[in-house]
Amino acid sequence: MQRLSRITIFLLVCFIFNAATIGPISAQILIEWQPYTTGMDSAKNNNKSVFLHFYAKWCGYCAKMEKESFQDDSIAEYLNENFISIRVDVDKEQNIAEKYNVFALPTTYFFSSSGEKLGSVPGYISKDRLMAMLKKV
Question: What is the distance of C-alpha 14 from the center of its chain?
């Protein structure tokens, strides 16, 4: 009986120690992606710039950008506040990819709220470089 109490106390102390060192858990901010047509209309109606990102599920650099750049809370928050973010899967929406002459993945376009092309970047964009670009648009 006494041995059981010691084990219980030991486990309780371990639990309290682990809980104290973990700290508060924060929710991750997610980018509010919109479909192409809805997003372009929303940008005009809300007078916001457009962040248009082309990707494919099989693309390694697309996955890297998703994990390292788009999962960053500061990037997600900035995009959500200042842009209409549109993501296009080139395998599912080939006509849109062809419209923008997308040949490399990932490819990212920036548009004004009126639809004027401000620029495009082929390839992976690190979170630091992406934030710098977003702040210039």
Answer: 36
81 to 3, 40, 66, 85, 112: CA distances (angstroms): 58, 16, 19, 10, 15
Q: Which domains does the chain have, with CATH numbers?
A: 29-136 (3.40.30.10)
For the question of residue 14 being annotated catalytic, the response is: no
* Residue 85 one-letter amino acid: S
Integer Cα distance of 86 and 121 in angstroms: 15
pLDDT in tens, 25-38: 556 899 999 999 99
Pairing of strands 107-111, 117-122: antiparallel
Q: Point out the catalytic residue in the list 43, 52, 62, 125.
A: 62
At 78-99, the pLDDT tens digits run 999 999 999 999 999 999 999 9
Q: Which of 59, 90, 130, 134 is catalytic?
A: 59
Count CB atoms within 10 A of the CB of residue 21: 7
Q: Tell me the whole-structure pTM to 2 decimals.
A: 0.79
